[in-house]
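Summary of Year 1 activities. Much of the first year was spent building the evaluation harness for sequence design. The harness presents a backbone, in tokenized form, and records the residue chosen at every position. We chose the following record to illustrate the format because it has been used consistently in internal testing since the harness was completed.
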């Protein structure tokens, strides 16, 4: 599957997660699943699904439009950045 198709699929999954976030159908459900309220179990599963979709989005859909081209000066050596002065410690003189 191409990167663009992955991005389209993942954006659709993100929209579905947005719609499924509020579990209106479990508000009055007093059953316990695995010893926990049904709404809490739903949101645990929702968090796992959202984490998976967002993790896949980082891999396949970010940054939008693909990676930018490297500048022509990328091969040029850069000077190191000096450390901050003082280091946050008080000087006793």
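For this record, the design step produced the sequence shown next.
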């Amino acid at each position: 599957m191409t990167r663009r198709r992955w991005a389209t699929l993942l954006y659709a999954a993100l929209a579905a997660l947005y719609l499924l976030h509020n579990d209106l159908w479990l508000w009055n459900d007093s059953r316990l699943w695995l010893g926990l309220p049904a709404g809490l179990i739903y949101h645990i599963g929702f968090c796992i699904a959202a984490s998976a979709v967002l993790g896949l989005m980082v891999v396949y859909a970010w940054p939008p439009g693909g990676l930018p081209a490297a500048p022509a000066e990328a091969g040029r050596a850069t000077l190191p950045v000096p450390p901050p002065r003082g280091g946050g410690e008080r000087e006793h003189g």
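Strands lie at 32-33, 36-37. Quantitative recovery figures across the full test set are reported in Table 2.
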